[in-house]
UniProtKB/TrEMBL annotation:
Keyword Cell wall biogenesis/degradation: no
Native source species: Vreelandella azerica
Gene name, Swiss-Prot/TrEMBL: cheB
Domain notes: Contains a C-terminal catalytic domain, and an N-terminal region which modulates catalytic activity.
Reaction(s) catalysed by this chain's protein: L-glutaminyl-[protein] + H2O = L-glutamyl-[protein] + NH4(+); [protein]-L-glutamate 5-O-methyl ester + H2O = L-glutamyl-[protein] + methanol + H(+)
Protein localization: Cytoplasm
Post-translational modification: Phosphorylated by CheA. Phosphorylation of the N-terminal regulatory domain activates the methylesterase activity.
Stretches of the chain forming a coiled coil according to its record: none
Entry EC number(s): 3.1.1.61, 3.5.1.44
PANTHER family, per the entry: PROTEIN-GLUTAMATE METHYLESTERASE/PROTEIN-GLUTAMINE GLUTAMINASE, PROTEIN-GLUTAMATE METHYLESTERASE_PROTEIN-GLUTAMINE GLUTAMINASE
Name used for this protein in its record: Protein-glutamate methylesterase/protein-glutamine glutaminase
Length: 354
């Protein structure tokens, strides 16, 4: 039986974290820890020896920088890597860099009450390892991509037009790929990416540096304007609302939906209600089904909707569910999504002017 189990190698300088991860992973029927390493130097030999399916990696380690190791690993032996990150500003910036280099996803390790905190995350860790084992290894987006990305032509639209995006595992880099080519006067964009509090601000700041549009972590009651992308803060649901003639963002700490807060379904549902055919909905890579029902609601309210295709998804979970439910008016490769979004926005504008 053990031959079919997911083989995991845990790399962490903390013996406590190594022990807790081992306990969590070995308690699952379908996975096992084949080896643990206190640093990347020890990990290199263990990778050759055990050929693991997934690596868990703490980036902040003494003997060798985790990011250097990850960069080398993705170049020489690409494999699914789940980051184990501290919930600090510095930790969140390092984690985002790791995702950029090709890490698949991350789990946040608690700063206090580590044992109880890690055990609370046990199911999430196991689920993310399963998704990682099934995923396609992802090499970093080449740096030369950024300047080479052609700016898309801006559609002739009113400030009524909106683009609504939801993503999970693999989504940080997918969102970057979607936003980077957009012109500075693109329609307003609202984004829910599954992420814990503390990470979304760093994520928004990083995108803001890379994109022509302004990207920020949204605040409650903020007016939604063209040329801006608004990212849901970790641990708060983002909804679209109306205030007179304007769109505004609303945040709340209601119960998790599909075990997520922020939830993509919450955002898509509000867009269906308040924007209808003025919106374009986009569901990107991610595990689970959050957003599938909401995308169908958006489509039924008159919105054009896009699901990312299987070939370009890191994890084809949320888009697969959305397609199966009939929520997607079209399915597109990641690189084609920015152009399709802008075409659909322009087409809906023309249809309304005719």
């Amino acid at each position: 039986m053990s031959a079919s189990k997911i083989k995991v190698l845990c790399v962490d300088d903390s013996a406590l974290i190594r022990d807790l991860l081992t306990e969590i992973i070995n308690s699952q029927p379908d996975m096992e820890v084949v080896a643990v390493a206190p640093d990347p130097i020890a990990a290199r030999d263990l990778i050759k020896q055990h050929n693991p399916d997934v690596l868990t990696l703490d980036v902040e380690m003494p003997r060798m920088d985790g990011l250097d190791f990850l960069e080398r690993l993705m170049r020489l032996r690409p494999m699914p890597v789940l980051m184990v990150s501290s919930l600090t500003q510095a930790g969140s910036e390092i984690t985002l860099r790791a995702l950029e280099l090709g890490a698949l996803d991350f789990v946040a390790k608690p700063s206090l009450g580590i044992r109880n905190g890690m055990m609370e995350y046990a199911n999430e860790i196991a689920e993310k390892l399963r998704a990682a084992a099934r995923s396609r290894p992802r090499q970093a987006l080449p740096k030369k991509n950024a300047p080479a990305r052609k700016e898309l032509a801006a559609p002739l639209t009113s400030s009524e037009k909106l683009i609504i995006i939801g993503a999970s595992t693999g989504g940080t880099e997918a969102i970057r790929s979607v936003l980077e080519p957009l012109p500075a006067n693109a329609p307003a964009i609202l984004i829910t990416q599954h992420m814990p509090g503390g990470f979304t601000r760093s994520f928004a700041e990083r995108l803001d540096r890379l994109c022509r549009i302004s990207v920020k972590e949204v605040t409650d009651g903020e007016r939604v304007l063209p040329g801006h992308a608004y990212i849901a803060p970790g641990d708060q649901h983002l909804e679209l609302a109306r205030s007179g003639a304007n769109y505004v963002a609303r945040l709340n700490t209601g119960p998790p939906v599909n075990r997520h807060r922020p939830s993509v379904d919450v955002l898509f549902h509000s867009a269906a209600q308040h924007a209808g055919k003025n919106a374009v909905g986009v569901i990107l890579t991610g595990m689970g089904k959050d957003g599938a029902k909401g995308l169908l609601e958006m489509r039924e309210a008159g919105a054009a909707t896009i699901a990312q295709n299987e070939e370009t998804c890191v994890v084809f979970g949320m888009p697969r569910e959305a397609i199966a439910m009939g929520g997607a008016t079209e399915v597109a490769a990641l690189d084609d999504i920015p152009g399709r979004m802008m075409s659909l926005v322009a087409a809906s504008g023309r249809a309304q002017r005719v």
